[in-house]
Write a structure and sequence with these properties.
The chain contains 10 helices and 9 strands. By secondary structure, it is of the alpha/beta class. The chain has one domain. The chain has a 9-stranded mixed beta sheet, sandwiched between helices. A hairpin with a 2-residue loop joins strand 8 and strand 9. Helix 1 crosses helix 7 and helix 5 crosses helix 6. It is globular, with a radius of gyration of 18 Å. The protein starts with a strand and ends with a strand. The relative contact order is 0.14.
Length: 252
């Protein structure tokens, strides 16, 4: 067993703060004020430069609604109905966010394995601190124990993967896999035509049962599947079965 040291409080404080260089370099900066200023600047400058968006307040409502659905299957038709705007408008707004690197859109991985697969995408904010700000989270306790906890951790994992690949000069090719029956692998990372399956779990005490979806995936894709990981908020790195390792988030 190997360990990576990161306390529970440090981890979740880091999630709320996010990873923008100015916040990392200046620990005294108030993260909520910084994220509020960032979002406002983004709305007033970047969004209007890219596309004519007449009602910025409506777009900001969309931004917060999208944050609340982070790491979930995203039905744009339902979202447009909830917001009272057209489907094409919501689709265009999402494309603006993706083009400006505010969100990462994970699309379902397809291959001929004889299963009905879910085609709906999942959306993640590229900075977990921005996500926490948009959903109104202010302290680590509420973030770690509330209904958004799983989405926050999963968003942080997707963000770290995207940053790592980008820093290596690679365009991130990241997917997820979900069957119509509900079996899902949270993240699939394409590495030169092979795929690394990753599950994200909130429990800091990983167990072999947490690797069941990865083991199912590896059975269906034995040629392209690489060793998988269950990423968790604890400090232990242990094997969970053949070809699957529990990995602390801090070790990413």
């Amino acid at each position: 067993m190997s360990e990576t040291s990161c306390t529970f409080g440090e981890l979740w404080k880091g999630f709320l703060r996010g990873g923008y260089p100015e916040l990392v370099a200046n620990p005294a900066r108030n993260e909520r004020m910084w994220h509020a200023s960032y979002v406002q600047t983004y709305l007033e400058r970047d969004v209007r430069m890219l596309r004519q968006i007449g009602d910025l307040s409506q777009f900001q409502i969309f931004l917060r609604a999208l944050a609340a659905k982070s790491a979930q299957l995203l039905n744009l038709a339902d979202l447009s109905r909830d917001l009272g705007v057209s489907f094409n408008t919501v689709k265009a707004w999402l494309s603006v966010l993706e083009a400006t690197y505010q969100v990462v859109v994970l699309r379902s991985y397809f291959a001929s394995v004889g299963k009905r697969l879910v085609k709906t995408p999942k959306v993640y904010f590229t900075d977990v601190g921005t996500l926490c700000y948009l959903v109104g989270l202010k302290d680590p306790e509420h973030a770690s124990s509330g209904p958004m906890a799983g989405a926050i951790l999963e968003t942080a994992v997707v963000s770290e993967i995207a940053k790592t690949l980008t820093h290596r000069g690679l365009e991130p090719q990241v997917y997820f896999w979900r069957t119509a029956a509900g079996t899902e692998v949270d993240i699939l990372v394409d590495v030169g035509g092979t795929l690394v399956p990753i599950e994200v779990k909130l429990s800091a005490t990983p167990s072999p049962g947490m690797a069941s979806a990865i083991k199912r995936w590896k059975q269906d894709f034995p040629v392209t599947a690489m060793p998988g990981y269950v990423v968790h908020p604890g400090n232990v790195r242990i094997p969970l079965g053949a070809g699957v390792v529990a990995l602390p988030f801090a070790a990413l």
